[in-house]
Structures are given as structure tokens and as C-alpha cells.
Design goal:
Length: 380
């Protein structure tokens, strides 16, 4: 049987079709993915790129989606996660190990190295730091489409051993009580900066607020995109609506007995003299001309303010200067009210916005200590 000779026209058409198909087929996005090693926000990398003439109508929507992605986590948490990712990426590069795909055994080695301080002049990382770093690493890998299972035995077993060997009780900031707060307020001047700082301390204590919640307050609802809540001044006091870690909550701050220590009166004085009626409540003040900025004060100012005023007031004079500085922070105000308020625990829990009474008890540094004596109750 004679074989048919190939038709040159058909052969040329088939070759042309195969060439066009090869030009249009792109490699899988998973293969050509450029893993983010710079520690930038990986949320933006997870969003689709809009190229070509059809992208113009969707450009604004893509930018909106990126803004929502950035707001998925608190800015402080995101900064910590980005720093943890950079630390992990740097360690991998020094060891000559690849960043992708995620390897649970490699992550276990990284945790062991951090726990032992293995490296060039590195200190041992605490268990809390390692747990946060692991959360940041897992989060970044999820954004890159390569989830890492933290329950893998190479990770969970190593971390369990680190907890058992290096675990310590959680380090808590010292509570500032009412009499100590009055001494701290007395150290501040009566100029505009001093009035602002007085309002910060008094409001943070009376509201048992986190430092991010203090500086995140606006004068009203829907005034800024980065606000964490707003304040309404009423005849009986101030009503704070706050979006905290456990969701939205209302915090009632009643008026005090004296204007110079009343948190509501101090807040009214600051906003009136600072001419603040819209936007962030607490703002920086220029050192040269004393003008009030339109920007929001950072939460680091609250921590530094508490430390500085506690040092000036001579609180915990039994400690060295370095120990006293480490003992106080923004949470000292929050813990102070939880420890000072002699009311039912349920009211304190609601005021602090805690989901459980156990969490509220962690903030009560001295309250109820030795109130129940089981030694005597046992007959000894």
C-alpha cells in the first residue's frame, strides 16, 4: 500500500497554529511567582494585576481593594509581622536555604536558633516573641498562596520543647493607681502640651484604654479613615465608642469631683484651647511655634509619657532607673483602673471590653490578693 505524501499546505497551517498557541499560553502563576522577600505588605501581592486597556475602569476598584487589604490587620500587628518576615528571610539567606516552598523542618530549625540565640551577636528570643514570629511567618506564607501548617510535628514539637525549657511567666506592666496618677498629673506643666498630656493620662486611666485606642479617638464618627473610635461629650460625662480588639464597645467616663483631675474636664480644656473640633482628638504640637498639627499622635507617645511622668513622680523608687522605665508603659493605665475599681468584676470586665473574666483578672495586679486565706480556712 502506497503511503500518502504529506500536504505541504496542511503542514504549514498546523505549524502556524502551534506557534500561535505557544505564544499565547503563559506559565502557571504559581511557577512564575516572585516570592516577596522584602517584608512589604503581602496583601497587595495577592491582588490581581490589572494590565491592558480593560484595566482602566477597574483601577480605582483595585486601589480600594488594596486599601481594604491593608486594613485587614492593625498597623502595629502588620509592622511586627513584616519585621518577623524580614528576620526569617535574612536567616534563610545566611543559611543558604530557599524561602519557597515553606518547609516545616526549616521553620523548626529557625525557632531553635532564635531560642538559643544562635547567630552573630543575637540574643535569645522569648517564647512570646517566637510565637508571634511563627504567626507572622504563617500569615505571610498564606498571602503567597503557600500555607504553612504550624501544627506540623517539626514545628509544634520544637515549640513545645522551647516552652518547657525557656517558658517564663508573662511580663506585665506595673499598674498605676489613683493616688499615683494624681502625682503624675502634678508633674506636667499647664501649657498647651501639658494640658494635652494631662487629658491623655486621665482619659486613659478612667477609660482603661489601650494606647492605640487613646490616640485613635476622633471628635466624631466617620471623620478619618484611620480612627479607632470617637468621643461624645455629654452633660454627665463622655461616651466613647471604640473599635478595639474584641470589636465595638461603648465606654462611659463620668465627670470627676475636681476640674483639675476630671478626665472629661481636661479633655474639654484641651480641645477648646487646641481648637480641635474635627478629626483626631490628640495631635502633636510643634516645638518651634507651639502650633497644633492636623496629624494624629502616635501610640508610642502614650508609653513614653507614662514612663516619663512615673519617673518624675518617684513611683516605685525601690527600683533602679532602668527597671522603673521597663516597669511602666501604656498598659499601666489600663491595669491601674482594673486594680483600683472596687466594684463587681462584671462591670470591670465590660469596661475593659474583655471576652472572659479570666482575662480581666490578669489585669488586677493587687486587688483581691490574700483576700481569701486558704491556710486559715484549712485550720493551720
Amino acid at each position: 500500500m502506497k503511503s500518502e505524501s504529506p500536504n505541504p499546505l496542511k503542514t504549514r497551517d498546523r505549524q502556524s497554529h502551534e506557534k500561535r498557541s505557544a505564544d499565547t499560553i503563559e506559565p502557571s502563576p504559581r511557577r512564575r511567582e516572585n516570592v516577596n522577600e522584602k517584608g512589604t505588605n503581602a496583601d497587595e501581592d495577592a491582588l490581581p494585576a490589572l494590565d491592558g486597556p480593560r484595566s482602566n475602569p477597574l483601577a480605582a476598584l483595585a486601589e480600594t481593594a488594596k486599601n481594604y487589604a491593608r486594613a485587614a490587620r492593625a498597623s502595629n500587628t502588620q509592622r511586627a509581622y513584616d519585621a518577623d518576615w524580614r528576620h526569617f528571610s535574612s536567616w534563610l539567606r545566611r543559611q543558604g536555604l530557599p524561602l519557597s516552598p515553606p518547609d516545616p523542618q526549616t521553620v523548626g530549625l529557625y525557632l531553635a536558633a532564635c531560642a538559643d540565640g544562635a547567630g552573630r551577636g543575637t540574643e535569645r528570643s522569648s517564647v512570646a516573641t517566637l510565637e508571634r514570629r511563627l504567626s507572622g511567618i504563617c500569615w505571610h506564607y498564606r498571602q503567597l498562596g503557600e500555607p504553612l501548617d504550624s501544627r506540623d510535628r517539626h514545628i509544634s514539637t520544637v515549640l513545645a520543647g522551647i516552652r518547657r525549657r525557656h517558658g517564663r511567666p508573662p511580663t506585665q506592666k506595673a499598674a498605676i493607681f489613683a493616688d499615683e496618677l494624681l502625682a503624675m498629673l502634678a508633674t506636667l506643666d499647664l501649657d498647651l502640651r501639658g494640658l494635652r498630656d494631662r487629658a491623655i493620662l486621665a482619659l486613659g486611666f478612667a477609660g482603661a484604654l489601650r494606647r492605640s485606642e487613646i490616640v485613635g479617638l476622633d471628635c466624631g464618627p466617620d471623620q478619618t479613615e484611620d480612627g479607632a473610635g470617637w468621643v461624645e461629650i455629654q452633660e454627665a460625662g463622655a461616651l466613647l465608642t471604640i473599635n478595639g480588639k474584641t470589636g465595638w464597645r461603648e465606654v462611659e467616663i463620668g465627670r470627676g469631683s475636681r476640674p483639675e483631675t476630671c478626665p472629661v474636664a481636661l479633655l474639654e480644656t484641651w480641645t477648646r484651647l487646641g481648637r480641635i473640633a474635627d478629626g483626631p482628638v490628640f495631635r502633636p504640637i510643634a516645638r518651634k511655634n507651639g502650633g497644633v498639627s492636623s496629624e494624629r499622635l502616635t501610640d508610642k507617645h502614650v508609653a513614653r509619657l507614662v514612663q516619663r511622668c512615673a519617673m518624675r513622680a518617684g513611683i516605685r523608687g525601690d527600683l533602679t532607673e532602668g527597671e522603673r522605665k521597663r516597669a511602666f508603659g501604656g498598659h499601666s493605665l489600663r491595669a491601674g483602673l482594673a486594680s483600683s475599681a472596687q466594684i463587681e468584676e462584671a462591670h470591670v470586665q465590660k469596661h475593659l471590653g474583655h471576652a472572659s473574666a479570666e482575662m480581666t483578672r490578669r489585669y488586677q495586679r493587687k486587688r483581691d490578693r490574700f483576700k481569701v486565706n486558704l491556710t486559715k480556712a484549712a485550720g493551720l
